[in-house]
Amino acid sequence: MAKTALVVGASGIVGRATSALLVEEGWTVHGLARRPVIQPGLVPVVADLQDPEATRAAVKDLAPDVVFITTWLRQATEAENIRVNGAMVRNLLDGLRAGRPARHVALVTGLKHYLGPFEAYGKGRLPQTPFREEQGRLDVENFYYAQEDELFAAAARDGSSWSVHRPHTVIGQAVGNAMNMGTTLAVYATLCRETGRPFRFPGSSVQWAGLTDMTDARQLARHLLWAATEPAAANEAFNVVNGDVFRWSWMWGRIADWFGLQPAPFDGTVLPLDAQMADDAPVWRRIAEREALAEPDLARLASPWHTDADLGRPIEVVTDMSKSRRLGFAAYQTTDAAFFDLFARLRADRLIP
After folding, report:
1. Third-level CATH fold of 172-213+245-318+333-348
2. Architecture of domain 4-167
3. Active site (catalytic) residues
């Protein structure tokens, strides 16, 4: 099998993990980003997918066997999310038509497929949990659906197969990422230790006590590679999570212990991180200067708004992976170990002290 890939969003949490796995498996990997980062074995491609001409010029000489789309751009409204993110997928796949069409195109979306977009997140009539792929779309505008429609149209036109991958909250490392719970919690724990503030769960009672799951970026990368190389997985949408379930009432203590903290008692009051960390930028800069950290800008490390959206949900969120298991995907990752691995990498890279 030919093994040339284009990873779109290679500087992000999912793109970095996917690129690293593909290089490890002997693939030739082109990594597309607006601001590429240096990664071993990765051939950088610079492009802004909002610009169709620039995108076409950047990819016209590429002939990837598989394309992995792992990027999106957050906009102020869902209408703008749909316009911008749908166009990005369309511009990319139109640009790649100049060469040999890809054999397979994989698109990463997420559980907002079932929960709705941020403007209507977790509201209205939602499907029962655990979420299953056959539950389909909500009757609401959603940029994930727009991305899927662009993927389906291009695959039908070009004769490519496709796969859609719906992770739960992703644990992984990337600086400047819009959705980054793992690093956000690491930064929050560091700030609590520095200032003596209580390390308090910021979310809802439902999330504290209910079952949930998450997705390690390395698990998602393995799933992407599996679907791109397993014929039975062609033209299917999949949920993808680590394989374990937990309650935040247990996980919060595990995270606190890693940072040498005592978890504060939880009384059911929601105290969003966005408010708790609103004035912490100067504190973080002082920590970064004292400890010689690599990133003094708190806004590039933490995304409290996104962590609040996940931990503040009023419903239990658990994801079914039976479809992947039936077709042969057997990889598994414990979620507490995923957090601990990330924290250790952040420390080794001088992103946290």
Report:
1. Rossmann fold (3.40.50)
2. 3-Layer(aba) Sandwich (3.40)
3. 112, 144
